[in-house]
Each structure stands twice: as structure tokens, then as C-alpha cells.
Amino acid sequence: MTTGPVTIRARDVGKHYLRVHEKPMLLREAMMLLSGRKQRVDDLWALRHIDFELRAGETLGLLGPNGSGKSTLLTLVAGTTFPSEGTMSTSGRISTLLSLGAGFNSDMTGEENIVASSGLLGMPFAETRKRLSQIVEFAELGGVIDTQIRYYSSGMVTRLAFSIAINVSPDIMVIDEVLAVGDIAFQSKCVDALEELQGRGITTVLASQSPVMISDLCTRALWLEAGQIKMAGAAAEVAEAYQVGMTGHSMGAAFADALE
Amino acid sequence: MSRGYERSHLSTEQAHLVRWVHRSALGVEFGGEQPTGKVEPSFRAFVSSVQLAWSLRETFWALVAKDFKARYRAQSLGLFWSLAHPLVMMVTTTVAFEWVLRIQIPNFPVFYLIGAIFWQLFSNVLTSTTSSMIDNGGLIKHTTFPRFLFPVSTVFSNLIPFAMELLLVFAFFPIFPNAYHFNESLLALPFMILLEVIIMMGLGLVTSALNARYRDVLYLVTSVLTVGFWATPILYSSTMAPEWIRPFFRLNPMGFVIESARDIIMNGRWPSASYTAAIALEATLILFVGAAVFRRQGRKVADYV
After folding, report:
1. A-proximal residues of B, 271-300, CB under 8 Å
2. Which tens digit of pLDDT belongs to each residue from A151-174?
3. In this complex, do A24 and B3 lie within 8 Å of one another by their Cβ atoms?
4. Containing domain of residue B292, as a range?
5. Residue B10 within any structural domain of the chain
6. Residue numbers of chain B with a pLDDT score lower than 50
7. Interface check B58 vs A, CB under 8 A
């Protein structure tokens, strides 16, 4: 599986935020500059010392409690934000599924949103039109594709977003915990689709709260804690350690509990 | 299970986009697998981001279309409203000026309409580009194409209703035949529009970048626009102003665009070459300053929205 070339490389990546207590206003800053007063700010390292390398076809799972930096790391891989230290390098077209329905326009129909979103992810229009039926079919939205998406349920929006994301010929896919919104049938379809993409050599980075999903889908995993890597390794091992660390039970025991 | 690495699903057109992108606190570097750690000097970086934008021109049109549709889908009569507004303004202003205030400007309705549509474009573009980063917050968190496409696409989506309004100006020819003088100087009109586009892009790049960081920039822009409306020869002509103030008027590029457009449409007169060159230089300068400010701020936009 790890025969492909390197497609993502993070070298000592850190992301620093200055947390201000008041909404930044030009007028106030100008007045503070004149009066020589300093604004109260907190330093916040959302991520620090993140190192990893991924090859084409590999899938990296991100585990960690809320606020541990999973989503920040995803935006750095996606390239929407820049690291404050270190270098994040990627090769190829990136497709993202970071938040539910972001980038959709609720006044436009499903079909119009497919064309607009695919265009914004870098697909030529002609190519989108060719794949339109494939996208609609995968999202199982055949009957409502001409309806404004304001009338869609959140599950339907997720299905549409996922279907677009995998159909724009990405080299790299970045997925946050949005899959949980779809129903079980669609989730298992997504898992199949992601496995197929892995086979085609697409690199995926996936954040999830579910150790089971990470150990099923991913080849490797990172356990993040307070912005630092607590554990890195094979997905199954990290997922098991995370499950034990967070709950005190192993994944097998949790499954056995559920059966009883 | 090892099926190796395939790129056959990528068309040749997309394949050139498959290259290394290195992001660091210094900025973004495109090229080989290893980052050199040296970020391109600003002019070359600007050129390469324009090249990248050019390779994403379909993306750009998707953005323009989305912006335009979003604005007019919300209104059932769509473009009709963009024409109704200047018409209503034309009628009310004519009544106020000619009948109430009794200020005599020949062919005032056409005189005003030309000034109003060029100013309306300027004012609409500046308010909507200023908030373009916030309005597109979802996309900014979602996609990576060059950020300057947001303000620039807003400029273009506003040109669509402007084109309709310009047709409206010519549609009044049968009603006020004496107000028009058509000749070959009309060829200079597209150049005036181009000048305005360059000015709007330059200013829009500054205000959109600043507004992502400081949310009160929009209030500042609307206040400055109100002052600008009265400081620009829209309701009057600069020849009506006192002698001492005219040199300041001549610095206002929007005043030049509006008065030249009037001269072209109503008098069939070419704008002066030297004055046009000076304003073109000013507009280019504004665009370069805008690009420089945007380059410093643009990278951080996703951290703020």
C-alpha cells in the first residue's frame, strides 16, 4: 500500500493564535496606537511540533479529544490556513469536506450547487457536466436535485457534499467529522467509496471521534492531545490505545458490552 | 492489495496543477518536492498567483456566477430592480433640481443618469467587495484558490447590472435626442470603464483584506462613500465649482471617469490624452498598492473569518 510517492509532508508544523478579548476594530486599534496602550492578548499554540509524511494511497486518521487540534491540522493540510512555524507541503489537487454544507448556497438548487462547488474545487465545467449524473446518483438525490437546498435535510446536504468531494478527481482528501451526519446506509457507502479511492492512490486525512472507524479505514493514525502528538503509529494500535486511554476499556470490550 | 499509484484519472489539463505546494509562516512556495525556504519576492509571487488564477479561470467564472445568482435569486424580479433604482433616482433628482431648487443644467436627466450609474457601480462594488471575505467565509474555510479572486469576482459580478444600466442610458435617446452626440469618441467609453474597474479592484483589495481583520472597515467605507458622492461631480459639473477647489477635483479619478463619460456620450468629445494618461497612472498605482496590502493580509484571512 505504501508504494506511492510522498504526497503530504509536515515538518515541525505549529499553529499559533493570538486570542484577543474584544472584537478587533480599526478605530480602537488606531486610538490605542495613539494613546500607547496595549491590548490584552493571550498566546495560544493550537498545534506544535507536528511531523509526519504520507504516501499516495495511505490514509491518516486523527484522534483526540475536543480542542486537541484535529480540525486545525486538517485546515493546515487543506491549505486554507498557513502554519506559524514549520512547513506543510502537499502535492496535487486537494478536495475538502471540512464543515457541513460550507460553500453551498441555500437559494440555489442541488444541481446548481454541484456545478458551482465543483468549479470552485477546480473542476472544468465540461467535466462536471459529464459527471453530474454520477454525482447525483451517488448522493441518492435523484428526486430532489432541482429543489433549492434550503429544503434539504442535513443528511442530504452531507451526502451531496461528500459525493461532490470524491468526484472532483482529488489527489488528496481532507475529511472532518461530517460523515457522522449521514444515515448508516450512506456511511457504509462512504466507507466503501473511501476504500476505493485509497486503491486508486488517493491520500486521505480523516478526523473522527470513532476509534472503530479510524482503525477500519486508516492505515496510520495520530493521537493528538493539547496540540501535540501523543502517539503515532499503525491505525489499529493507536485507535486501541486511544480507546483505552479515554474510556478505560479496549475496543473489543466495548463491543462485547454492546452485545450483552 | 497494492495497486500502486495511478494518475490516469487526471486529465492533462489538470496534471500541471499537480505540483508541490509548500506553506510556511513566510508564505507559499510552488515547485519541486523540497522547499527551498525562500519565498518569492512580492512581484514574482504576485505574477505566479495571477498565473495560478488564470489556470483556474473556470473557478473564477463559477465564483462570478455564484455571486451574481445569489444576489438576484433572492429578488423575484431580479435584474428589474437594478434598473428601477437608477430610474427612480433620475426622476426624483430631476424634480428636486429643476423644479424645486431651479438649478439649470442642460439635459439634466441624462447628465445625472450617466454620473449616477458610474457612481452606483463604484459604490456597490466597494460595499460588496469590502464584505466579500466575510460573505464567502464558508468557501474561504473550504477551498484554497487565490484569495484575491473573491474581491475581483465581486467586481465582475457587479458589471452585469452595470451593462444593463448603460443600455438604459442609450435607451433614452428617443426621449432626449438633443442630449446625445454620437461619434467615434464612443470608442473611448470602454477605456473609461476599464479605468474604473482597475480603481475598484485596487481599492476593493485593500478594504476586503482589512475588513476580514477589522469588522468596522465596512462602516468606514460607507461613510467615505457618502462624502465621495458629494465630492464627485455627479449632481453637478466640476466647472460649477469655485476655481481654487478644481485642482483637488482633478485628482479624483472617479470624477475624471464620470466627466469623460459624459463628454463622450453627450458632446462626442474625446477626453484629453495627457489627463487620461495621468489618471491611468494613478489607477495603476492604486491597483499596485491594493495588491501589496492584500498580499500581506490575504494569507491570514482564513484565521480571521
Report:
1. 299-300
2. 998 888 888 988 988 888 888 999
3. no
4. 56-304
5. no
6. 1-17
7. yes
Structure ipTM: 0.82
Please state which CATH number belongs to domain A6-92+171-259. 3.40.50.300
- Identify the sign of the CA torsion A31, A32, A37, A40: positive
pLDDT for res A15: 92
What 8-state DSSP symbol labels residue A144?
A: T
pLDDT tens digits, B114-129: 999 999 999 999 999 9
The dihedral formed by the CA atoms of A64, A65, A68 and A70, expressed in degrees to the nearest 10: 50
pLDDT in tens, A12-22: 999 988 777 67
- Give the total number of structural domains in chain B: 1
User: Per the domain annotation, does B16 fall within a domain?
Assistant: no
Q: Which residue of A has its CA nearest to B13?
A: A124
Backbone angles phi, psi at B84, to 5 degrees: -65, -40
Distance from CA of B181 to the nearest CA of A (A): 43
Which sign does the torsion angle of CA A132, A133, A139, A140 carry?
A: positive
Q: Using a CB cutoff of 8 Å and minimum separation of 24, what contacts does B7-15 make?
A: B7/A171, B7/A201, B9/A169, B9/A200, B10/A93, B10/A169, B10/A171, B11/A124, B11/A127, B13/A124, B14/A93, B14/A122, B14/A124, B14/A169
CA of residue B36 relative to chain centroid, distance = 36
